[in-house]
Amino acid sequence: MEEINEAELQSESLERLLHLVEMVNNILKDEELLKAISKLVVSEETFLIIDRLPQLIKLIEQLTRQENLEKIELMLSLLQSLDKQMLEKLSNAFKAIKAEEKVKPMSISKMITTLSEPEVSKGLNVMLNLLKALGS
Amino acid sequence: MAEKKKFLIVGGGAGGAILANSLVKDFDVTVINDSPYHYYWPQLLQIAFRNDYSNLYRSLSSLLVKGVNLVIDRVKKVDLQDRIVTLSNNKTINYDYVAIAPGVTIEHKGIDGNEKLVEQYGDFHSTPQNASKVFDVVSNMKKGTFVIAVGDPYHRCPPSPYEGILLADEVFRLRGVRNDINMILAVPYPRAYPAETFNEVLEPILKERGINVMTFFTADKIDTENKKITSLEGEELSYDAAIVVPVHKGPKIEIKPDDAINQDGFINADKFTNQILKYDDAFAIGDASTSANAKTGVTAHLQAKVVSKRVLGLDARNTGRTNCPTELGFEKGTFVISDYNHPAAKVPANTINFIMKRLFADAYWDIIRHPEFWDPIFDVYFENTQPEVLWKLFR
Amino acid sequence: MSEAKKVVDARGLSCPGPITNLTKAYRDAKNGDVLEIWATDPGFKSDIKAWIERTKNELVELREEKDKIIAIIKITAKK
Asked: Do C and A make contact, counting contact as 3+ CB pairs within 8 angstroms?
């Protein structure tokens, strides 16, 4: 009785193996599938990754250290808190500075007039609020 | 040991075969199928546009595990009241449980002129012969208008018309004749793809490939003399070659009582449990059942698993999960994934999804044969690709 | 020829959606018939208007109730 069971088990295992072979065979015969896989594996991006793997691993190692992870998370929450419009304004302001070849010195009277401009006083208010929050 | 209860399964397709293989340990299972073969219907697209027959069919007996009885015969009648199934030779079989899963009947005559049209240009929803006609057409056409029109929105495999037109585009491009062929996809819906969310994925692809989409066009009459299709909505479309997705009806099986089937012959079953009316020993699964929110193998597969658990006393329920792999040509693919509570997620078109699709197809026979091996893998897959999860991922 | 009124209940459907059910009923309908469609899909309102525009049938009423959107259509343009 037991011998029969063993023979049966063996034939079942053999059958399972044959089914798996059939599946692998299907995959290997699927030209388009293989083409798609090789396209994915052999690409500029994968070459780049392979080429810079040592640097990448080093970077990942540094990034995933506990203390750095915490800092990164803080940076992310900072990013989330930033207003998109405000960032755009800031980036425009920087571009404007770059565009003006030299920042010229300004007279006190000019400074006072500039300060009274609504945009400037609005920006100043933002800066002052920020300074206040940092100091508290 | 108490005698096992008799479980009869009408139909040995994806749903019927998986159910049989899942139940064989606990029941005396018999599958009745009208053909000795089990067809993998998505292969019709591969035949139509790639001339690839490899995965079309296997003998059903090779897919059923040892212990499952197989009867090759046509079922004439199922009497749910008396628990009797009648075969073509009037022989009867009684049961303790029955699952009806015979799939659909394709009715070309449901659209005026489609019988003649399919003789000329074939289609990819009926037979391998018709699919091979399509391949002849797309590999010989040099110029003119090529049309795929949907005549029945309840056809098998919801993304198939889109796959069809995109794969035809691929063939025309590879043959270098694409510039001389105007390609039109005509659909009954307000937009290219009925589900608005998935349309956001698909429409840009159709546009990029230069396929013209005609909305609110339900093919109704075909004039093969003058090569014109008229829509139910009253518009006309001229073609040089055309494929009209045929009307699908329920199985040609008499089911008693009469209210177990709807006007189109589909079996009225509960969308959560697959139970037919008040009969707690009778289920309908897959394409033949009104419980299938998409006519796809995955739906039949998932429903078979639900039924196999319910008859063992577990309260398993369908979630309405769809998982329709969609080939877009040029080794790109996506999936239509939705459930009763979530519209189709915006799964992006890429090569990984194409690879996933093909791996599913190549593993198909093994999935049918070995539910015990694949069930845990699919459980993880379905859990991790729930529409709810995907919706958060792809906004 | 008798003119019929038919209710198409497409509540709870979003894909392929209420329009698909309407199309099915439209196939069996004839001029003079009235179709009443019930839907819950919020996109239904714009879809039905677009359908009317394309098919040139008559939209008798389109209203929203607590639990459903109801469209009443008179079939006038069937060929």
From this structure: no
